[in-house]
Amino acid sequence: MPAGWPATLQSRDTAWERLTQPPFVLDNAKSQQRRVRGLALLLDWLAAQPGQTWQDRWLASGADRAGAGWRQLPAAVAA
Asked: pLDDT for 31-61, tens place per residue?
């Protein structure tokens, strides 16, 4: 896995802007609202992890090692 790439260096605001614009927008408004709420929780959770990039934070969080169960990690903090 590469150590990083330009998108991993983006600010939270830039990542938010990109991920809430097409092609990442769902046609169903309620589903999109849930997606946006989840994205906010994910970005906040990742921002609280140690590291200089989003990739660093992802790896430090243990999400990579958790595989498909990675969603449980930020969900536990939000609960």
From this structure: 999 999 999 999 999 999 999 999 999 999 9
Q: State the sign of the Cα–Cα–Cα–Cα dihedral 26, 30, 32, 34.
A: negative
- Residue 74: how many CA atoms within 13 Å on its side-chain side? 21
Residue 50 main-chain phi, psi, to 5 deg = -70, 145
Q: Which H, E and C letters describe 25-70, residue by residue?
A: CCCCHHHHHHHHHHHHHHHHHHHCCCCCCHHHHHHHHCHHHHHHHH
Q: Give the C-alpha distances (Å, rounded to integers) separating 64 from 18, 32, 68, 69.
A: 22, 25, 9, 9
74 exposed, middle or buried (CB, 10 Å; 0-12, 13-18, 19+)? buried
Half-sphere exposure of 18 (CA within 13 A, CB side): 9
Report the distance separating Cα 20 and Cα 13, nearest Å: 11
